[in-house]
Amino acid sequence: MAKVTEAHLEARRRSILDAASRVFSEKGVAGATMAEIAREAGLSAGAIYRYFASKEDLARGCLDASAEAVNKAWLHPELVEMGFTELSEATFAALERPEAAMDTRLWLEQVLTAVREGDATALKEFREEYGQLIEGIGTLLRRSFGERLEGYDVHALAQALHSFYWGARLMHLLLGEEAAPMAQLKALQGLMAGAMGEPGAR
Amino acid sequence: MAKVTEAHLEARRRSILDAASRVFSEKGVAGATMAEIAREAGLSAGAIYRYFASKEDLARGCLDASAEAVNKAWLHPELVEMGFTELSEATFAALERPEAAMDTRLWLEQVLTAVREGDATALKEFREEYGQLIEGIGTLLRRSFGERLEGYDVHALAQALHSFYWGARLMHLLLGEEAAPMAQLKALQGLMAGAMGEPGAR
Amino acid sequence: MAKVTEAHLEARRRSILDAASRVFSEKGVAGATMAEIAREAGLSAGAIYRYFASKEDLARGCLDASAEAVNKAWLHPELVEMGFTELSEATFAALERPEAAMDTRLWLEQVLTAVREGDATALKEFREEYGQLIEGIGTLLRRSFGERLEGYDVHALAQALHSFYWGARLMHLLLGEEAAPMAQLKALQGLMAGAMGEPGAR
Amino acid sequence: MAKVTEAHLEARRRSILDAASRVFSEKGVAGATMAEIAREAGLSAGAIYRYFASKEDLARGCLDASAEAVNKAWLHPELVEMGFTELSEATFAALERPEAAMDTRLWLEQVLTAVREGDATALKEFREEYGQLIEGIGTLLRRSFGERLEGYDVHALAQALHSFYWGARLMHLLLGEEAAPMAQLKALQGLMAGAMGEPGAR
DNA sequence: TATGAATGAGCGTTCATTCAT
DNA sequence: TATGAATGAACGCTCATTCAT
């Protein structure tokens, strides 16, 4: 089976990551077995080790791979033509996707593991992304609300909105549609509109 | 061998649950070993099985036992002399307690397990408590803001605030003081004040 | 099965060591499996780990345990009432014991492993014992041959005799009785007698 | 794809054996992996199987290949112009070669494997070579010492000297220069000289 | 012929659970 | 009732071997 193209290899790698994400999110990293991941990926157990050095490495790979497109927009608001309200809605709309729950689970799983093990690297990475994210949210808030933010602590507000987002994801995971994340968002938008007036044109 | 009193037995049970909560929150349910829990509880490994049928059973027991005092106030606002703002602050202040992070971890751990295993009983229980909680938050909002809530979807707002709370707990767990939950709360309170004016006297 | 006496535990430990020595010498350390050692010891695989932390630890334990009685005499000739010739013969006679081949195998196995892995601790230990052994042999030579050793390099002679001993063990292992270690010893004694005259009274 | 010459194939075979000898002696047969041997030989793992049926077969091949040049002289003393003393010294001098330790390791490794597995063919072969070797040593002893050997058991003496040689190799492997094989040889030569007088002219 | 991806049996090790004491 | 030695089923991982290319 020699001389498989680079693309083939990369595709295999991805299919293993997909399978692993599925299984990790279903069973948890600790609860998942390499055998099951292999089965899910349509491979033998040993084959995975050509692509990932260990279960831990595979789990790390899943985390890296799960960076979602929407996240990107918040991290780099300058690349995006949307205002805060629009992007919020796009973000919450994405929670309705069927993979969203899986991603949430997987992310929680990973993040809990990092905390548990005091994985300094992972935590630092997370901290840095968090900082950028909060900054991105602040930028979008200012873009949309401008001077009406006067008197508000924009950084803390951005943090609060971010917390709200993850809380909503969590509740959506636990409660399903009952959590109604979009309705929650609308309620919060109502609050912001009441406090600052409708966001002006972007 | 004298008959051991019922109270004694119950105390043992509790001390095992405490030990297990500690270890589960530190290592995760899957990562914890019965031997470690036993050590933490000052017992032998075998002894635990007189009180809990299995590790799984013990984990379930921990979930039931983790209801926190502050929660009670939100569930039963009629028993409490506080307004929304005060109770929010008390609730967020409680996050500074050193055990808070442990409780957050444990709760996430448990709740993820329940989702994973599709544990219908646990999820139903959670759903019911959630409903009451949202109702309690709504009650407190109305108590504090009265008719100024006119035009707002109080239920969705209560859900959003609840999401925000759990999101803040999660970020506090991951980021420590950098998450500054109290500052986040203040930012949100500012928003609410802007939208509805200062909450009137309770 | 609680509260087993210390003596019981020690006996188990010994029986595991015996089983392991048997299997290691038969299959080599690398070729032996913990399962087989357990079976040989009449235990389950897991049980061994109460007594030894790992296969490697067990192997080390076997080496330590295999210090033979005869060796002691050479290390501490002052405790022994024998002359060189007598002790040599006792030592070579011990090679006829059925366990001798096993001990030889095990020792070679261990010593090769130490060299392979550059195990500095083990090698240092070996080096030290070697030094003492050579000194012991020298002492015995002087005791038996006295001034007739004049003109000989006693240290090198002791080393040569020691090499001869291990070479004879090795050949005995490979060839069985054909190696005739005792005949070899007699030949060498003949040489020494020829060179220095009969060893005087001790 | 042109037909590859027989010589080419044979050269490949040899280069694999060389690589395997290196790796086996470094890691032990059990500890070595086919992948490592292949890498060392500059081939892929699969390719080796065109030349050797299995790892075991490869190991056997190494044993056969390890006959050393010096050995030849002892096996066929009639082809050689040296006396016992000279050849002894040449043989011991060869131990200083850097590959000597490797050869010793490999030989021990192989020989232990043969004993372990009761490999009758290998042991018979060894036994036969041993017989010839002892005879060769005897021939050289007689050539050098002639009638001064009167009264000595030449066969046993040859065996003893052979044992001494392998013991010295073993100690040299374990102790490095501290073992001083040449000094040991001199000591033994001194003994022989003392017992029989200087070996006469060859 | 050579490659190297894939297989799959088997290893060392862990740990929830049992049960003789 | 408590102990902790023992069990034994998994698990993560390795590697000799195969075979499509």
Task: Give the gist of this structure.
With 202 residues, the first copy, chain A, is mainly alpha-helical. Chain A has 10 helices and no strands. The longest helix of chain A has 26 residues, at 120-145.
Layout: helices, strands, pairs:
The structure is a homotetramer of 202-residue chains.
Chain A: H1 6-27, H2 34-41, H3 45-48, H4 55-65, H5 69-75, H6 84-94, H7 98-116, H8 120-145, H9 154-175, H10 181-196
Chain A binds a DNA duplex (21 and 21 nucleotides) through residues 1-4, 9, 12, 33-35, 43-47, 49-50, 54-55.
Discrete helix count of chain A: 10
Task: Please identify the structural class of chain A as seen in this structure.
Answer: mainly alpha
Largest sheet entry of chain A: none
Task: Kindly state the number of beta strands of chain A.
Answer: 0
Largest interface: A-B, 54 and 54 residues
What is Rg of chain A?
Answer: 20 Å
What spatial form of chain A do the alpha-carbon principal axes imply? elongated
What is the mean pLDDT of chain A? 90
Order of helices and strands of chain A: HHHHHHHHHH
Low-confidence stretches of chain A: none
CA distance, first residue to last residue of chain A: 56 Å
Tell me roughly what share of residues is in helical segments of chain A: over 70%
Which quaternary structure do these chains form?
homotetramer
What proportion strand of chain A?
under 5%
